[in-house]
Amino acid sequence: MSRIHPTVVGRSNIEEEEEQQLPTSTGASVWTVWKKSSMAFHGTDGFSIYDGKGKLAFRVENYSRKHKCFAGELLLMDGAGKAIMALKPQILSMHDRWSGFRFEDGAETSTKSHVFSMRRRSILQGCDEAEVFMETAKGGPAVPDFRTEGCFRRRNCKILNEDGREVARMGRKKANKSITLGDDVFSLVVQPNTDVELVMAFLVIMDRIC
Description:
Elements: H1 11-18, E1 29-34, E2 47-50, E3 56-60, H2 68-71, E4 74-78, E5 83-89, E6 98-103, E7 112-120, E8 130-134, E9 146-151, E10 156-161, E11 166-172, E12 185-190, H3 196-209
Antiparallel strand pairs: 1-2, 1-12, 2-3, 3-4, 4-5, 5-6, 6-7, 7-8, 8-9, 9-10, 10-11, 11-12
């Protein structure tokens, strides 16, 4: 059976596997996303996200696949289960707007600060692209700070900043040169100087709205 993520073995083996994934630039980090709760209970849903050495780095556990209006808050956690961000849907939003809140000290009962809002670019249900507005004090017309391009459902998608520069890219994961894994396992490349936690939050919301 093919590995979902790289095991901690010799450096040459890790490099060989990463060469089969998306193209990377110097300093970019490579992640493996498994659309499965690490709890592995029947009927649960979530994400397990592994770093380049096969260590569980982020997860979202046991949330319902009910309609977004009834889904409630999702928690993005680190690999140890420490809460990092709370993701909340806006009820009855035509653009499927969600908001992201960061825990100030990582504890679920701590103070949360609003970090961003994310929504589909179009009210049409077939729209696969989204845009992100960061919580800032800047005035003027609302211009997205990030936007997605491509099709998330097909695992062929990238995230661009307001200057159009690519900050992250998702793509199908290959077990080897001839075998591509299913849609529930895919690769994520995050460029240097990018907030990885933000990218993981965007990914979870994209799964709900795209």
